[in-house]
Amino acid sequence: MSAKSASRNPLSILKSHLHAACAATALLLGAGSAAQAADLNALIWCDHADPALLQPFEEANGVKVNVKEFEGTGAGLAIVEQSQPGDWDVMVIDSIDVPRGVEKGLFEPLPEDKLPLADLFPQVKMDGSTVVGGKRYGITEKFGYNTIGYNKTKVDPADMQSMAALTGDKYKGKVAIYDYYLPVIGMAALAIGKKTAELTEADLPALKDELLKMKANAKLVGEVTASQTALATGEVDILVGGGEWVTAGLAKENPALDFSIPKEGAVLWSQSLAMFKDSKNKDMALKFIQYIMSPEGQARLATSSCYWGMPANTKAALTDDQKKVLRFDEQPGFLARAQAYPAPSADLDKKMQDMWTEMLQAK
Amino acid sequence: MSPSGNNPLPRAGRALPRAGSALPWALVTPALGWTLLFFVLPFIAMGFSSLTAHEGGGFTLSNYSQFFTNPSYWQAMVNSLEVTAIVTVISVLLAYPFAWILAEQVPERWQRLALMLAVLPFWTSYVVRSYSWLLVLAQNGVINRALTGSGLISEPLQLANTRFATVTGFVHFFVMLLTLTIFANLKQLSPSYRKAAADLGAGPVRTFLHVVLPLTLPGIMVGAFLTFVLCIGDYITPQILGGNNELLMPQLVMMQIGRRGDFPLASALSIILMGVVTIAYLACARWLKIERA
């Protein structure tokens, strides 16, 4: 449906009036604490809320970065839709979802000549998603793997080199599953020999069987905190979908936690930065993106207190210890074996989520 | 002539001067405005959203039909009702004797302190309390350590990440709520009722079953209804303690929003949930005498 026809729909008219009323109310209520025009307003994931990351930028540029955390692209885009144009300057988004923001006309093309694209790991540039219509709308800032996270003192690391361990009897009841359907469905695809980029509706029955086998072995299916806690406290020994984002940040307290890239491969996750088309502070927004992509910014983002992850910039100013924990030098080999996040169409996405719901409800 | 025509005193409703009628409206306007702004308008918006297609917009009933045709969605409602019913029954069974002891056995001068101690867990953050339960019920938690340490069991029990954990977390919270409503009801009960029952030859058990219990039923029902409403709509407790080994309705609603941003389906599921709460209200409205509770 085109925007024009949508605007003629009585439901849409009423919805737009209600949205306007809600926005006006929010504006009224928030007038007292509204961000200053000179501030930078960022829609972010929790790793960007770390003061150790933001303070150097704020001090260097004399600007306050106002952040709002969100989980899930849908929730993030909903915040934008319910805001006034220009309320937000930059956004952190799943790299595969950059086109969703572009389709909604939210993002501003980024000047490639002012970004360190040549320094990025080539495999994580994700031009298939971050470049739309020949223009770059997103730049990958951080990445990692949804793979097998485990406690190496409790399981045989050799077993973790195959996804068969996740569905076998040996570790039954010792497994947690990360509660995000796309990467774990991607892992199920790898386990049955399918490529994540080529998944179709016809693959769903086989994927469902694999997911149900994983669920039968699992003690819990948990979001970030729950699954991380379960692995760290010994409630489980294996986390399906885990990776450096779980183990690296806990390395000091719990050096027994590790991750493997099994022979079947792993799913590559990556997050991008995008600038809003209606930003009133585009120069500062670009400066922020440049800061995050700088070697110093990349090191701070990679080791953020919320979760660690690989910096997209190969020149990130990480210490040797940090590189060791992140297994920086092994990245070329890991990347060669990793496959992209599944990026299904809206229809297939819905079917995958319903399949995930079915898996969660399975006894 | 009206039946009151001979009454020298004017009827209260009519006798109030017109100027005075503005005051009650002025007093109630902030609450009405609040309700209109933060309940009625959002509810209307949610209603329209639930009738809109996620992809492309336009009118549709598919968001509602999905609930009835997808067994996983339907199962979420069944799970929610089962958990809520179990929690409500257990909470009432635990709260009533607790409230009775507080009201009848604890000396008057200690009652306030005892009540404060009873509701002390209310002072803790809801999320912190749920995570605390996770630590208590975990494989290496207090309970399993005690049981294995004492030799009662050889292998730890799976207590965390189960329906049992969800129910435990809920019951801990709602026993406090029910204790308050039942305690208030018991304190309002005149001792004369029990004395009269005793005079007529009723023993303690009979007095309780035929006098005290029926008279405190409004307090129980108000507390039970609040428990039902708060429990069936709660997302945090099952999310933290249930381990996603089964989905309840609020979790299903949240799932639609995260990545896909399917607000129409989330709205439809929320309205169905509200419908169930309304049915529950109507079913027990007869006993819901809030002013007595």
Write structural notes for this entry.
The complex is a heterodimer of chains A (363) and B (293). Chain A is α/β, with parallel strands linked by helices and 363 residues long. Chain A is 41% helix and 19% strand. Chain B is mostly helical and 293 residues long. Chain B has 13 helices and no strands. Chain B has helices at residues 12-15, 22-50, 62-69, 71-105, 108-118, 126-137, 142-149, 163-188, 191-199, 204-232, 236-241, 249-257, 263-284. The model of chain B is unreliable at 1-13 (pLDDT under 50). At the A-B interface, helix 2, helix 4, strand 9, helix 10 and helix 16 of A face helix 2, helix 4 and helix 12 of B.
Topology order of chain A in helix (H) and strand (E) letters: HHEHEHEHEHEEEHEHHEHEHEEHHEHHEH
Q: Major β-sheet of chain A, in short? A: 12 strands, mixed
Note the overall shape of chain A. globular
Q: Largest sheet of chain B, described in full?
A: none
Return the domain count of chain A: 2
Structural class of chain B: mainly alpha
Q: What is the count of DSSP helices of chain B, taking H or I runs of 4+ residues?
A: 13
In the CATH hierarchy, the third-tier topology of the largest domain in chain A is known as D-Maltodextrin-Binding Protein, domain 2
Rg from Cα of chain B: 25 Å
End-to-end separation of chain B? 41 Å
CATH superfamily of chain B: MetI-like
CATH class of the largest domain in chain A: Alpha Beta
Based on CA inertia axes, which overall geometry of chain B fits?
Answer: globular
User: Level of helix content of chain B?
Assistant: over 70%
Radius of gyration of chain A: 21 Å
